[in-house]
């Protein structure tokens, strides 16, 4: 056994590398390589990607969805509207 704590420090014990760990690393590297391939060779070119969302009408849908979400919430509250209830009897303002 090493000196001190076996999980930290200069004399820690490292777990042995097993076959399943190597297989998992190889799978993750293959997946990363596939993702990088798709990033290097996109479906659309740069010229095609500019404005394709507006051509499909996605901007209008987004604006409509946001206005519907805003209608569900309460109106904006101002300080004047909060303090309006305290302003009911101002006798000294003759």
From TrEMBL:
Q: Which Pfam families match?
A: MRP-63
Give the GO molecular function terms: structural constituent of ribosome
Protein name as annotated: Ribosomal protein 63, mitochondrial
* GO biological process terms, semicolon-separated: mitochondrial translation
The GO cellular component terms are: mitochondrial ribosome
Renumbered to this chain, the signal peptide range is none
């Amino acid at each position: 056994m090493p000196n001190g704590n076996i999980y930290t420090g200069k004399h820690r014990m490292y777990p042995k590398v097993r076959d399943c760990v190597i297989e998992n690393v190889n799978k993750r590297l293959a997946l990363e390589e596939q993702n990088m391939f798709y990033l290097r060779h996109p479906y659309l070119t740069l010229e095609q990607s500019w404005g394709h969302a507006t051509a499909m009408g996605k901007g209008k849908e987004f604006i409509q969805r946001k206005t519907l979400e805003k209608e569900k919430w309460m109106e904006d509250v101002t300080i004047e509207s909060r303090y309006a209830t305290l302003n009911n009897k101002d006798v000294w303002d003759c």
